[in-house]
Specification:
- This protein is globular.
- The longest helix is centred in the N-terminal third of the chain and has 25 residues, at 2-26.
- It has one helix and eight strands.
- It has two domains: 2-33; 36-142, Lipocalin (Beta Barrel).
- The chain has 143 residues and is α+β, with helices and mostly antiparallel strands.
- Strands 1-2-3-4-5-6-7-8 form an eight-stranded antiparallel beta barrel.
Length: 143
């Protein structure tokens, strides 16, 4: 009889510990819930260069914000110093992003890039009907 009581208490204790462990493990913060776009958001000082030519376009400002359309896209405003009317979207995947083919105000954009700490670097191809396609190399430092 005594063995039965001890066995039941041991089983009850084991079950309580299992439930407690499951409860506290279920309450752990989910690291995957962090929005990876947060690292990109901000205002950047930019230097861009037309690939294959001499000279750069220095010291202009570009901003990056989150898209409200989904939870993976960032919005890059004033890309290659074209003005605020030119905002392109780019899905992020960790420290890299792509600029899928898109047309904004009659100008086509595509490319890809990387984030490294507070810096972004990307290449972007710009095309407009009736004009040559131009490739740009862009380096940005967050202000």
């Amino acid at each position: 009889m005594k063995k039965n009581v001890i066995f039941r208490k041991a089983i009850s204790l084991a079950m309580c510990m299992t439930f407690a462990l499951a409860f506290f493990t279920g309450c752990d913060k989910d690291d995957n819930a962090k929005d990876q776009r947060d690292e990109y958001i901000g205002t950047y000082k930019v230097t861009s260069e037309r690939v294959g030519t001499i000279g750069t376009d220095n010291d202009y400002i570009m901003t990056v914000t989150k898209s409200s359309a989904n939870n993976v896209d960032i919005l890059i405003n004033n890309v290659i110093n074209l003005g605020t009317a030119y905002t392109i979207y780019a899905p992020v995947n960790g420290d890299s992003f792509t600029i899928p083919q898109q047309t904004v105000s009659g100008v086509g954009f595509s490319g890809s890039g990387r984030r490294n700490g507070n810096s972004l670097s990307f290449s972007v191809q710009v095309s407009e009907t009736g004009y040559a396609t131009v490739n740009f190399s862009v380096d940005c430092v967050k202000l």
